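Extended Data, panel c. Modelled sequence:
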Amino acid sequence: MSYREYYVYVVDLDKSIFGDKKKFREENPQYIPGKPCVYVGQTSRTPIERFESHKRGHKAGKGFVRDYGRYLKKRRIPDQNPHSTRSSALRREKQLAEILKKRGWAVWWN
């Protein structure tokens, strides 16, 4: 049996997404102008591999990371990686998105 690790990651998005994408704006009524705009996700690959995949458009969802993603955020992000189960990573993804929203950040997550 192979052991799989899961990671939660945060991608910095260009702030122009807030003006360009109505759905993103509607999802973030708490946004404080000047704070970061980010995407929070979870993956069984390394965060770098997943970011590169997003940028290529593979499993890119709405394309927010493909079109607006600038880099992986590492500073000021509570790090609990890796997770031993997908369900743990999914819980952390949601928890982290909520924490960042409470800080006034604009956040998209699945």
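Strands lie at 7-13, 37-43, 69-72, 106-109. This feature is highlighted in the accompanying rendering.
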